[in-house]
Amino acid sequence: MFANEVDTPAPLAEHPLQWRETAAPTPGAGQLVIAVAGCGVCRSNLHLVEGDWVGGGVPAISPIIPGHEVTGVVSEIGEGVSDFAVGDRVGVQPLWWSCEQCEYCTSGREQLCRQRVITGEHVNGGYGEYMLANAAHTYHVPDNLDLVEAAPLFCPGITGFGAVSKLDVGPGDRVAVFGLGGVGHLALQFALLTGAEVTAIARSADHLAVARELGAHRVFDASQADPGEALEDSFDAVLTFAPSDVVSAQALRALKWGGTLVSGVPLTLEEFHFNKAQTIKGSILGNRDQMNEVLRLASEGKVRTVVDRFPMDRAADALQLLADGRLRSRAVLENGGRPA
Ligand SMILES: [Zn+2]
Ligand SMILES: [Zn+2]
Fold first, then answer.
1. Which CATH number covers residue 73?
2. How many CB atoms lie within 10 A of CB 232?
3. pLDDT digit string, tens, across residues 67-80
4. pLDDT tens, residue by residue, 303-320
5. The domain containing residue 70 runs over which residues?
């Protein structure tokens, strides 16, 4: 098969990602092989390819095929797989394997398993023609969803859903979403489903246009004014997905006293006023039940992805556009001509 592989992470200008022929996977017990239809391009893929996470042991193998929001069709099944058959439409999220025995795995928080294996970081991911997956972490994609459009449900979708599920908001509450890229545009829709009044805040005119299309009650152009100052003490909850300490500080300032900030990015805060009694929560992915809930909501038309399609062999170009901030929404790599 052909795939995009990284031998040694390096800046994109040095072309660390190579489209080339490599061995196709074979399924072991409890595993299956997926003929990849689509794989979303995530900022974390960029971090991996450029070597930002080498200190943290990512990538764990060399060469590695990146990519962790993957959809496709089952092409082969291993021994003992009963929930899937060849030809099934499926998807895989970043959580590729979990131990099923630790305190997290046995309490519906398997995304926090300390032994977790992440798709495309510890094992090969979806930037190729085929990918190996575990049946226990593979999901059926509803028939009415396009496989390429469904790919981002498997990282931005579950990430946005997991973040909104950490809030207790509904009609009458005011919520702000800071950062409207891949995750933000889905978190916005999950926030709207709670019945709260939702404000979308970003610097990109394209991102704000998408937010308007998706039903945001208000949009705020952060390239024109400081939203922390203009919207100080305005929101019962804020969600932030922009990897910027400046934005995190603005988000905290826009939060009401007693409100909750949920962050899906690292943050360093210079100031935290305990007397405002605010809560800060981190959020990563979600569990398997939540992933299936995301797929159900998408199937019912309650949330949708906005994608820019690229041929699979143009992964490096898609990453460059992401690095340059020139994507309108989520890039998805697709294998053309494959039955889907
Ligand atoms: Zn991702
Ligand atoms: Zn575990």
1. 3.90.180.10
2. 14
3. 999 999 999 999 99
4. 999 999 999 999 999 999
5. 2-155+285-334
